[in-house]
What we know:
Number of strands: 3
Strand content: 5-15%
Shape: globular
Strand order of the largest sheet: 2-1-3
Structural class: mainly alpha
CATH superfamily of the largest domain: Iron/manganese superoxide dismutase, C-terminal domain
Radius of gyration: 18 Å
Amino acid sequence: MPAEAVTAPDSPDASPAAYHSLPPLSYAYDALEPFLDEATLRLHHDVLHRSVVEALNHALHQLAEAQRTSSMALILQRERECAAYSAEHALHSLLWHTLRPGRASLSGGPLAQELGRTFGGFEQFQQQFTARVNQLKNGGWALLIWNAHRRRLEIVHTAQLSPDWGAVPLLPLDLSEHAYYLKYGPDRAPYIEAWWRFVDWPYVSRRFEAARKLQWPAL
């Protein structure tokens, strides 16, 4: 989940470091082996995610300054930067929550039932998700989302996301090279295969059950 903002961005006393912070991991850096080794997880969390948080804080500071001007072009530019960094921060934060040491299967419950209704079953969902990922040649994120407007589960890539769609991310997979290259090299397939064995399905299920309570107008 996104880290809480502790100082309002438009506060005259706000500093860029005050808006968001890097969320700590709930497990050790070597706890996700053999999926991710310690070096990869430290790089991804401590260096790359931290850089996203710092960039977001800086962008928020610049947005606050731009809003004191009359330049709408500058304000729109800063808003786009904030939106991009905020999405990356939120998805990285969610990623850490959806991973856990050891295997946790999805054994029944509302999410399993909804996967069955939408995709034909859990195995069919895995196959469709993996097939979608294998079609994506660039980085970004692949996600299982709950579409609060359409009241259904969907598999999407970040290029497809729009705030107007009511997309609630449930399960993200980072497809950028920094997420896997140190351990797997250029071959992404073993990384994806190993990822399935470390998904925290109880957490994803709880998130789904909260998301489906949202009552948004159908489109």
